[in-house]
Design goal:
It is built from three helices and no strands. It is mainly α and 191 residues long.
Length: 191
């Protein structure tokens, strides 16, 4: 009976040892599980925060600190692609804006040059008209003074004809310049 009591006592001690070992192992596994869960939760929160910043337009997010070798790592890799594409789009937008500004400046310069050219041509035409009027006055004076002289009238007629021809040539030239200026203006506006 002592042997049975000792055997029962040994079995009870073994059972207690087994129970305490199981409790300690369970507690250790529970602690590891909680620690892993908290680390995973922290990673998910960090990735969610980085995603929110990227979605809000903040592109200087440190994604390298989020890199992992699991499924969350695939999410971070997708965020890298998203951020890199957003950076390229931002740079493309800046480049396009700069090109538009250069094109607008070139158009303004071209229009200014055309306006200046038209003013110069208009001034030239006004000067030509003044000279033509002056020549016309001289022809009229000569015609009046030479009323009785046929040869004087003939000379005056030739001078008038020459002036009219010059006016015609200048008018044709000026018309061509105006047509060219209008054409260049249309081309500049189309560009």
């Amino acid at each position: 009976s002592r042997e049975v009591t000792t055997a029962v006592q040994g079995a009870q001690d073994d059972a207690r040892l087994f129970i305490w070992t199981a409790i300690l192992l369970g507690a250790g596994l529970l602690g590891l599980s909680i620690a892993a869960s908290l680390a995973l939760r922290r990673s998910v929160l960090d990735i969610a925060q980085a995603t929110g910043k990227l979605a809000g337009g903040t592109l200087d997010v440190d994604l390298e600190a989020q890199e992992r070798q699991d499924e969350l790592g695939q999410v971070v890799a997708s965020l890298h692609v998203f951020r890199d594409n957003a950076l390229r789009m931002r740079q493309l937008d800046v480049t396009q804006r700069q090109q538009r500004e250069r094109a607008e400046q070139e158009r303004r310069t071209l229009l200014s040059d055309l306006a200046s050219s038209l003013r110069t041509e208009a001034d030239g035409m006004a000067d030509l008209a003044t000279r033509a009027a002056s020549q016309s006055d001289r022809v009229r004076s000569a015609a009046t003074n030479a009323a009785g002289n046929v040869e004087a009238v003939s000379v005056a007629s030739e001078e008038l004809s020459s002036s009219i021809s010059e006016i015609g040539r200048n008018a044709d030239y000026s018309s061509q310049l105006v047509r060219d200026a209008v054409q260049r203006t249309r081309q500049a506006n189309e560009n």
